[in-house]
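User: Batch of two.

Assistant: Item 1 of 2:
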Amino acid sequence: MTTRRMMNKLPEDVVIYILFRLPVKSLLRFKCTSKAWYTLILSDTFVKLHHNHATATKEEFILFIRTFREEPDLWKNVASFIYCDDNNDHNNLFPDLDLSHLTSSYCSIFGQLIGPCHGLIALSDSIIIIILNPSTRKYVVLPPSPFGCPKGYHRSIEGIGFGFDSIVNDYKVVRLSDVYWDPPTDYPGPREPKVDIYDLSIDSWRELSEVEFPSIYYLPCSEMYYKEAVHWFSHIDMDVMILCFDIITEIFRTMKIPGDCTFLEIPRYGLAILNECLTLISYPDPMCSDEPIEELIYIWIMKEYGESESWIKKYTIKPLPIESPLAIWKDHLLLLQSISGIILFSWDLNSNEVKEFELHGHLECMRAVIYKESLTTIPRVGEHSPQVQQF
């Protein structure tokens, strides 16, 4: 007796109970067995049940992006989809994916991964923006923002964000940029901040009016989506702050970093999620510190989100030869890029064990984001909307 015939003999609620515990790969195969299963598996209710179950489990995956030089003036971005077994040995979930849309004539040092948001992740090299569901292997390339700048001015993209507005039930992409007067021989200025927002449900860009935000302090591992807000680092009166943009209200706010961090000699910072808390990683700047491998790494967690007084120093890590942190996997594996810039390795926060991954890339161009499986579909409004594609 086939699996479908066996399942058909069960009550519908039992079938749903069984199905939403299955991995996405199996569900995508099962939805082709009948119209009833196709409708069920792709229904909003089932997608939410499956997402909630996946969120409650500890099964986490990594989307890892790295850059290679193909020719003297051509760079290629490659995505790897990784999972870890019970022995913490990593394996590829899918074959590596060449991201041709992000392949360009410059090195994607400013490339970012933002998310996950209901299983969707935004990839960007600051010019091209892609929305991707790594579980279903569906993606869409967003149309470019129509907002440029007048002749004689320069528009600099400072940050990209992505999140979900639960009030209007829509995904949004936010683009922060600065417009400068750009004469050929003079100092550019003054700065005029701009905020563009793309609403996926209506396939349209819009520009917020009269919005101010402080200068973005760009760092790897710094654009974080958490608690329906996107987070960056910023400079305010020579101090480093966490800048937040609320996806629902479309309002900026700031949070202070731990006070001790400001006394470290030439520190850099990263953002991550640890034990479901916003987490700050402070580490030595490999470009400025005389002996970066002699400096300690500190991990802080914010126990009460939004309360700067609730920062707690969780871990102090011995000096490591790193270029930057990338993410925290399974609440105990800190993923790091080596100071040579070409190796991904992990530091176990529980055992202090170091493990090297057989994954390599160009200096400063490694990015990683942690995600859980999801059936979430990428919205597409009509025939003129960007085409959702399969990889």
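Item 2 of 2:
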Amino acid sequence: MKVVAIAACPAGLMHTFMAAKAIKKLGAKKGFEVTVETQSASGVESELRSQDIMEADCVLLAIDTAVEGMERFKDKKIVKTDTTKILKKPDDIYKQMIEIIGD
């Protein structure tokens, strides 16, 4: 499974980067490839490449605020959560991703 993700919170500080780290950790634990973009007060970092988005089985949005570039995910399967849930219940998010990919 290949996943692209965005992590973002309103202040764009600690929760954004903690969520990004949690997403990467989940990918390593569950054995899927993941690329994470962060959108913070300092802007977009590690911007997702078009090729990665095209090849992704799903998009994971761990966000607490609106994000830039949502049009990139047209016709993609999306799992949306908040930064707190990806930190506290990553296995629940993984199950959602598996369910949506299976549709």
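The two ends are 14 Å apart (CA to CA).
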